[in-house]
């Protein structure tokens, strides 16, 4: 666990909203000198609090408006079965997220697709071939009501 003070929290909040801002803009926004701000950002990067900088893309503009959530239940939960599934699922190019779950399903996948035909292709080519799957349930998102990548700090 890394200690985060109020200044670090302001820096992290600002960077999560606008990761490409200059150090000068960031230091002004968090009320800190540019050199002190730069040192803090470097420390947060070195400690792994800031893991990556990314560009968030608009799925609709890239003709990938369909989001499909897939619940998967495996036939067994041995370490070998989980490892085999996780190795193979990581190879799906349309996969946005994969979560090992506690609850009714073993895994929850978030898939990006163009439409129902594209999801059928993803299902045939990748999902149906995943090892150890006993059940699979797919749900199409009708609309994203709220979405953020920002963690509360």
TrEMBL record:
> What CDD domains does the record point to?
HTH_ARSR (cd00090)
Q: Which residues form a coiled coil?
A: none
In the record, what lineage is assigned to the organism producing the protein? Bacteria, Pseudomonadati, Pseudomonadota, Alphaproteobacteria, Rhodobacterales
Domain HTH asnC-type, residue spans: 4-65
> Membrane among the record's keywords?
no
Q: Name one Pfam family in it.
A: AsnC_trans_reg
Q: Which InterPro entries match?
A: ArsR-like_HTH (IPR011991), AsnC-type_HTH_dom (IPR000485), Dimeric_a/b-barrel (IPR011008), Tscrpt_reg_AsnC-like (IPR019888), Tscrpt_reg_AsnC/Lrp_C (IPR019887), Tscrpt_reg_HTH_AsnC-type_CS (IPR019885), WH-like_DNA-bd_sf (IPR036388), WH_DNA-bd_sf (IPR036390)
Q: Which GO terms describe its cellular component?
A: cytosol
Q: Which GO terms describe its molecular function?
A: sequence-specific DNA binding
**Species for this entry:** Psychromarinibacter sediminicola
State what protein this is by name. Answer: Lrp/AsnC family transcriptional regulator
Keywords annotated in UniProt: DNA-binding, Transcription, Transcription regulation
User: GO terms for biological process?
Assistant: regulation of DNA-templated transcription; response to amino acid
Q: Which domain of life is it from?
A: Bacteria
